[in-house]
Amino acid sequence: MAMKFLDDQVLIHYYLEGNEQAFEVLLMRHKDKIYRSIYHKIREREIAEDIFQEAFVKIIQTLKLGNYNEEGKFLPWAMRIAQNLVIDYFRKNGRMKLVSERNAKSEDFTIFSVLKMEELNIEQSISKTELETQMIELIQHLPESQKEIIEKRIFQDLSFKDIAEAENISINTALGRMRYALINLRKLIEKHQLVTDLD
């Protein structure tokens, strides 16, 4: 049977057995979706291509280390790896912002300011960084529509008007989703006991 008709899990098995062509088929099958997901957030072709290549290096390394156990769900797993690299890129380049519910309707709010950012001493700054990292992870647990809104606002720095146009929804709907996303983030913060004395 031709390789292209095999499912992902079988291709991964063949690749781990030493068949390089199996991974080429896997790559060709999913590369467009993975690249588009990166470019959609980065909007810079060269950087998106670098992150895409880095994602596949990481995918190969993880497979070869025997750490893949997603039972046939290769694409969502690969997309998560790419998403994490995008988050790393924004954090390293200082483009990750922080939001609070009370200023979520403002066009110039900063995301995650569940923390107040005014006058942080050294200890508070360290706490803020640690909390920010945990908050980024918590975003992944939001409903898809809410996660999309937050990611567009954080990573792409889009206005609510631009988000509404991109999602084909009203500005009020976009604002509503952001509000519910922030409410849900607060619940997750309480659930995971992410306490800060920055309030």
TrEMBL record:
User: Which keywords annotate this record?
Assistant: DNA-binding, Sigma factor, Transcription, Transcription regulation
Where is the RNA polymerase sigma factor 70 region 4 type domain positioned along the sequence? 134-173
Q: Does the keyword Transcription regulation apply?
A: yes
Name the InterPro entries on file.
Answer: RNA_pol_sigma-70-like, RNA_pol_sigma-70_dom, RNA_pol_sigma70_r2, RNA_pol_sigma70_r4_t2, RNA_pol_sigma_r2, RNA_pol_sigma_r3/r4-like, WH-like_DNA-bd_sf
- Which Pfam family, just one, is annotated for this protein? Sigma70_r4_2
Is Transcription there in the keyword field?
A: yes
| Domain of life per record | Bacteria
| Gene Ontology molecular function terms on file | DNA binding; sigma factor activity
Locate the coiled-coil region(s) and give their ranges: none
BP GO terms, sorted: DNA-templated transcription initiation
| Domain RNA polymerase sigma-70 region: residue ranges | 26-95
Q: Which family does it belong to?
A: Belongs to the sigma-70 factor family. ECF subfamily.
The record's annotation in NCBIfam families points to: sigma70-ECF
| Protein's UniProt name | Sigma-70 family RNA polymerase sigma factor
